[in-house]
Task: structure prediction
Amino acid sequence: MHPVGGGRRVTITDVARHAGVSTSAVSKVLRNAYGVSDAMRERVRESMDALDYRPHAAARGMRGRTYTIGVLLDNLRNAFFADILDGVTERLRGTDYQMLLGAAGFGAEDQRRLARAMVDRQMDGLILIGPGFDRHEVVGAAATVPTVVIGHHDTSDAHDSVVDADAEGAALVVGHLVGLGHRRIALTSAHGNEGSGWTGTPERVQRRGYLEAMTGHGLAPYARVATTAYSEEGGYRAGMELLAATPRPTAVFAGADVAAMGVFRAARELGLRIPEDVSLAGYNNTAVAAMSPVQLTSVDQAGGLMGATAARLLLERIEGRGRAVTVSVSPSLVVRRTTGPAPR
Amino acid sequence: MHPVGGGRRVTITDVARHAGVSTSAVSKVLRNAYGVSDAMRERVRESMDALDYRPHAAARGMRGRTYTIGVLLDNLRNAFFADILDGVTERLRGTDYQMLLGAAGFGAEDQRRLARAMVDRQMDGLILIGPGFDRHEVVGAAATVPTVVIGHHDTSDAHDSVVDADAEGAALVVGHLVGLGHRRIALTSAHGNEGSGWTGTPERVQRRGYLEAMTGHGLAPYARVATTAYSEEGGYRAGMELLAATPRPTAVFAGADVAAMGVFRAARELGLRIPEDVSLAGYNNTAVAAMSPVQLTSVDQAGGLMGATAARLLLERIEGRGRAVTVSVSPSLVVRRTTGPAPR
DNA sequence: CCTTGGTTGGAGAACGTTCTACGACGAGGA
DNA sequence: TCCTCGTCGTAGAACGTTCTCCAACCAAGG
Result:
């Protein structure tokens, strides 16, 4: 057994010496490039195993690829992201690529710094989940390194896009609630990073979808939107605002599951039972929504599929596809126990 | 304005040419090393700004540091990790270091590969959260790059450790339940990765703490442990096993909040009310526990503090501290609505 | 025997940094 | 005037890869 670590790294030169060939030859085997005989390949492979050689990714990055995919997201508490990441991981399994995550928080400046850090680290591709920093920066980065943007409906020929049909998702919820006899259906939404150049953020598209659906059902006068943040606290504030109003809405559609949790709290504080007094629906169908004490009606966005698609598009791009592509994923409604017939 | 991206990277050579000095000089300014006059520093700084220069991290990695900290964890759904990561991020803010995350899943082999990938990418330091792969591998990696292990109570002079006083945490829960009149208190636990060389995994220490506490209260005969996995499904199976037994325990202590969610489901299925028929406590005090429809009594481990501590230790190590250090963090009990007096 | 062309292997120049040497300069002491 | 000693700046060799040439060899065709 060789020592388990500590010593000097085994380099391509060591392998070459051990196998009695040139470093170029080893490099060729490594990249399985043209111009290597079977015998030679075999010999080199054996030396690699014997020495437990692993290529130095940083050094690789100086010339070729780093075999690293960077994923940028704002925060980890949104369980929906975990679904996306599972999809990415799954698609990347078996390839030589490694996924590394950066959690930047919500600040545009921090996100920008992280994206740059990823570019500086010579990553081969970037997946940006609902980026909140300036659109020009994103397009700029995308000009340097293959990039897929998840979430925003703004497309560009600089990067690929994977989006959820959020307007459709909103319509699904409104339709479900209308079917249960609700008319006063309110929405909690969030303001994205204003002035960052994105006009098709998911929350904006969702809001539009909600308003259109309400109008479509002839309920435009009953539409109400409270705009806070997608967080427990944000949901609470929105819930208080909406549920304290007169006449009170009989149903609240929370733009994100985590916000729905805040609405839950608001309802409890106001002495309202769910779903007897107020129906509540979320969005994202995160793991929380399914939990036994929660049982939240929500919209599933097939996060895994989105992630896998993003990874696929990225690999295609890295392999050389030129044209930008946009893939849209259809959401579906998952009915649980927080929505029920409208109170008379 | 310079073009936003796309073109050739600006390198240290460009800056040197622009400022009319040597690349060595620029490098010195960059690292603020000794031997630079104020005038020169100023001039170089200006050129850097003018050209929007950013050092190429991959190239840096070939000689010096990459200013990258790698964090390895098994999966993102455990919200406890988010707390830890917030702590790490907070401590790293303002430094030149960037944190990158790797989510490896639970497989020992995948985790090992990820850890190696991080070492290959020449990261300056590693934070391993409850690593499930072989202890020798971890020690080996730690010999190459500064490493902090979070969670496992097995210490080593190769790496620093940050642990939660899990035995104490278990005692807190048992004490609380005993105070409410419970005697038949069961535990749901998890088997770590067997045969990986870790003898002090959190779940094992917690289990020991539970058994000792039960014994201390003279309740050793009532101790019951169901060992599954820390997941919703695992909790459900453990819950079914424990709650279907006769005599039925009056309280279940779930080793992790996520498992408690499964116990919730099991209880509901068996027609048992919480906390009237069965009290339920979790561990980790994740965001879910606090949510309005959940209100789970849990043990808070000060994840943020653990993360910040880990980051601090790591930076110290990178700066040259030789001796390994272990820091233990004390848990505290957060009582909510899922625990109540034992049924008569 | 000379060409041609395909196959196999290697030399060596990048890539963008860091960092060790070393040289030039000016001031101060003998 | 000559030495010594800081201070400031530069040359240039790493670091571990990739990849473009180029050379050697062999077989087949003329």
